[in-house]
Amino acid sequence: MVWLPFGTVLLAGAAVAATPTVPPRPELPPITLSDLSGQAFQLKDFLGTVTVLNFWATWCGPCRVEMPELQKLYNDLGGKGLVVLAVNVDVAANPEEIDMGQLLAVLRPRIQGFLAHTGVTLPVYLMDGRTQVALGVDRIPFSVLLDRQGRVVRVYPGYSPGSMTDLRQHALVVLAEQSKRGGK
Fold this sequence. Notes:
Layout: H1 6-18, E1 32-35, E2 40-42, E3 50-56, H2 61-77, E4 82-88, H3 100-118, E5 124-126, H4 129-135, E6 142-146, E7 152-157, H5 161-180
Parallel strand pairs: 3-4, 4-5
Antiparallel strand pairs: 1-2, 1-5, 3-6, 6-7
């Protein structure tokens, strides 16, 4: 398995645009996410779906604009096999282990308030600081489009209306590509 921090994937993506052949899509390392009830999930549990992994925070202005757009993307394409996983990173990345129960006690009310206020119903997850540091998520919002095998198709650091348009277009391509191969 080959895995690169997202910053490295960005540079690799720039190289792809300059070359006529497209290299294999890099794989992500094993990632454990916890939902707001504290139940742990592995990212690999979502294999078989085209997945948008979005890193966001309740205090982030661009995230507040992007989240409803991600909800619309999911509403439009969820029936075709797209999943959007909103990974909250309200607490700064820290390689020191923080008890997930303590983290949930602090963040759950803040996240639930945000979701109620915005009407967003996407599933929200948390991850430990070590994973966030290892992935190289150094800005938010930050979205990653994964194919059905969990490989990185494209990364979107920051927010812009153009990036959301690009994300939708690439998600449609990956959904169609998988359908042609007889995928789920």
